[in-house]
Amino acid sequence: MADSHHFAATLEWTGSWQGPTTDYSSYSREYTIRMEGKPDLVGCSAPIFRGDGPLHHPEDLLVASLSSCHMLSYLALCARQRICVESYTDQATARMEVKNGILRFVEALLHPDVTVANDPEQAIRLHELAHHQCFIAASLNFPIICRPRVTLSSSKTAN
Asked: Which residues, at least 6 apart from 48, have a Cβ–Cβ distance to it below 8 Å?
């Protein structure tokens, strides 16, 4: 694997058609992100920042990126260890607070719920390694807590 990887996106403020930024309360926060060969992603600021609720916002995307990176790291580890993962869901959350005068993320919580066909004890342990291999988690500066639940297909649970 190469030591350097590059990714690109083009962002356009598509809300400009509603008017310029003459004051904080009146301009549209809508934008479109384009990545070559992929569907456009329409977004906006979060509703608490005067955004449009049904659209994706940066805070959503950060939580989704963290959760999906952990899952992909975990599935790769399981595959290499010959642990057969049959299902995986996560109810990921993150919390923002004002810290040192700046609103920022202060914590994220992952709740992976995994069903495996074999070795649930090792499947639990691999979540810690997946956390350390997740490059999104490694790039963030706040605690990320992972509380996995692994269930053996025969309904035996390991925690």
From this structure: none
62-to-104, 108, 119 alpha-carbon distances in Å: 12, 10, 31
pTM of structure: 0.89
Own/partner long-range contacts of 134-140 (Cβ < 8 Å, ≥24 apart): 134/66, 134/69, 134/70, 134/73, 135/69, 136/65, 136/66, 136/69, 136/70, 137/66, 137/69, 137/70, 140/66, 140/105, 140/108
Contact predicate 28/43, CB 8 Å = no
What is the structure's pLDDT at 2? Answer: 79
Cα distance between residue 46 and residue 54, in whole Å: 9
Strands 41-43, 31-34: pairing is antiparallel
- Segments of the chain with pLDDT less than 50: none
Do residues 137 and 144 make contact, with C-beta atoms less than 8 angstroms apart? yes
Q: For position 137, what pLDDT does the model report?
A: 96
> Of 46, 55, 43, whose CA–CA distance to 105 is shortest?
46
Number of Cβ within 10 Å of residue 90's Cβ equals: 21
